[in-house]
Amino acid sequence: MDIITRALTAIVLGSVGVVVAMGGLLWLSERFGGRRLRQAVRPWVFLGPLGLILGLLVVIPTIRTVYLAFMDRAGREFVGLDNLIWAFTSDTALTALRNNVLWMVFVTGLTIVIGMLVAIISERVRYPRLFRSIVFMPMAISAVGASVIWKLVYTYRPESVEQIGLFNQVMVWLGIEPMAVFTMAPWNNFFLMWIMVWVWTGFPTVVFAAALRTVPQELVEAAALDGASQPRIHFSVIFPYIRSTIAVVTIATVVTVLKVFDIIRVSTNGLYDTNVIANEMIQQSFRLLDSGRGSALALVLFLIIAPLMWLNAKEIKAQR
Amino acid sequence: MTTRHDTTPRTHRSPRRSMSGVVLGATAVLIALVWVVPTVGLLITSLRTKEAASRSGWWTILSDFAPTVANYVQVLQGSTTQVGYAQATINSLAIAVPSTVIPLTVAVFAAYGFSWVEFPGRDKLFLLVVALMIMPVHMALVPLLAGFSRGVSIGDVTLLPALNSPLAAVWLVHTAYGLPLAVYILRNFVASLPKELVDAARIDGANEFQVFVRIVFPLTVPAIAAFGIFQFLWVFNDYLIPVIFLGLDPATAPLTVRLADMSGTLGEDQHLLAAGAFVSMAIPLVVFFSLQRYFIQGLTAGAVKA
Question: What is the ipTM of this complex?
Fold first, then answer.
């Protein structure tokens, strides 16, 4: 019972406390002072907490990490570009970078393509919403949970023994020797990527399904009357119409894939050449206690993501 | 204007549809199977005994299945050396609830400020906040952890004391990195409310507090639900932030950390791992199935033209 009381107290203090504090501040600020004063204070009351939190917890630490990327492992002595050079030349870092590129290409490609396929097909089968729900369901569970599910599927047992993982059982049924997929570099990466595809495809699916519904029927029928085939209709009329949605979903997917961490950490912890930037960054910063190299890797990750952030903001602005 | 996405032109319906219909149907079934079967397999495994699970695959249950909930009991209770999943569930909730309520509160205020309070640079500031949406938390982990555990000081001057509560640290980090999306979703929603409502209330003499609480806030509930559910699931399922900020303390470990740990140490005990995984998925799946509509709304908010 003690644990529950403590947890409940924490929850109440953390949530209700903040609501009461901010509400109270607003009430007070509107109660007192002349109109001029209240008008000047008002933006601060509504936006102050936002600015404070983002400034203290996002902006400033990010700047500090950039600074740390040029310092030694303890963050005390300036080492110039040493960490960045390590990030682009060492075996560990290069393997991680290579893997991130593979992940980016394959996971993004597969999830977007399968997601669009499911979105299109779902409208023509008996139970569209059930079908999409099935594909979408893995989005509700943690990446750790998904990794556990697929670890079971991929489990290896020697040929002489009965298989307990579905993948190797299918291999055996097909007359192929069972494989310990996680140890087979470089193919192991693709088995790991599949886990993320399985989890993430639901996102493009539901967003594309909603976007497809906004395509005017007249446009489609006009193209059909002109004699266009199904694929042609899709590629020349429908996809361009929802171009912006496809762009935003792709960017969101690429950014999420670049940050992948849980799946690798739980399955292989980066062994057998499966490492990725996020995992190596955590290793360097928190296990090997080298904040210089860790920060350099974080910086590299950020530099790859930054142009995507800019593109995304542009798309969102264009949509408004 | 019809909105159903059906590109089959009316003149081509019957003969073409039946052939491609079969192919489409088969593809759909294949995809659905690949997406459902692994989870079903894990569920069955969680109900098997240790001997059964290590002896044969779960698909053999058709011939002999003696389901047991012993794995769940064992996993929920934990042992003298391992924290149970029941406690881990409470820990997950203790993390997820405030990490949802706090950013929602701050974002609702900010959304109102961006929509109904005039001040210079308002739109530029909003774009800046939105741009922060894809900022990876990795860029701040090291300084944040250092700042929380040692406090922030310049030279001998202490600007901020160390934060004594790792749990509060987790709340703050999740809040900070959930805020840009929250502000984006809520602000778009609040700004679309009819201006006449707000103006009428102001003319009637209501001060901003009353306009905010009595008029704008109740109307914002759908957007709050959409983001709230999205954020709750995101935080509940997160692994990186608790593992960094709560460290290896088993007493405060949420479900994700507990499960990852078990996967590393007891990887061979699939029956227990499966039960643990399902306990960790229970609440998110319930939330997902009952509130799917809102979750999807939260996701599509930024991606589809309104």
Answer: 0.89
Quote the tokens at residue A225: 């009357």
Phi-psi region of B248 (alpha: psi -120 to 50; beta: other; left: phi over 0): alpha
Q: Determine, for residues A131 and B28 on separate chains, whether the beta-carbon distance falls below 8 Å.
A: yes
Burial of B176 (0-12, 13-18, 19+ CB in 10 A): buried
What are the backbone angles phi and psi of residue B158, rounded to the nearest 5°?
-85, 115
**Model pLDDT, residue A97:** 93
Per-residue pLDDT at A261: 93
Residues 6+ apart with CB under 8 A from A225: B9
Which of A249, A259, A291 minimises the CB distance to B136? A259
Q: Which residues of B touch A302 (CB under 8 A)?
A: 136, 138-139
d(CA A183, CA B110): 49
Three-state secondary-structure class, residue A175: coil
H or E element at residue B159:
strand B157-160
Asked if A134's CB is within 8 angstroms of B35's CB, the reply is yes
Find the CB nearest A42 among B117, B183, B305: B117
Q: Which residue of chain B has the CA closest to A289? A: B142
Q: Is the pLDDT of residue B48 over 80?
A: yes
The confidence score (pLDDT) of residue B36 equals: 94
Q: Give pLDDT, residue B12.
A: 43
Q: Is A81 helix (H, G, I), strand (E, B) or coil?
A: coil
DSSP B89-116: HHHHHHHHHHHHHHHHHHHHHHHHHHHH
Query: In chain A, which residues have their Cβ closer than 8 Å to the Cβ of B78?
Result: none
Cα–Cα dist A91/B23, whole Å: 46
Do A301 and B171 count as a contact with CB atoms less than 8 A apart?
no
Chain B nearest C-alpha distance from A205 (Å): 10
**Residue B157 buriedness (CB in 10 A; 0-12 / 13-18 / 19+):** exposed
| Most confident among A70-84, A189-203, B80-94 (mean pLDDT) | A189-203
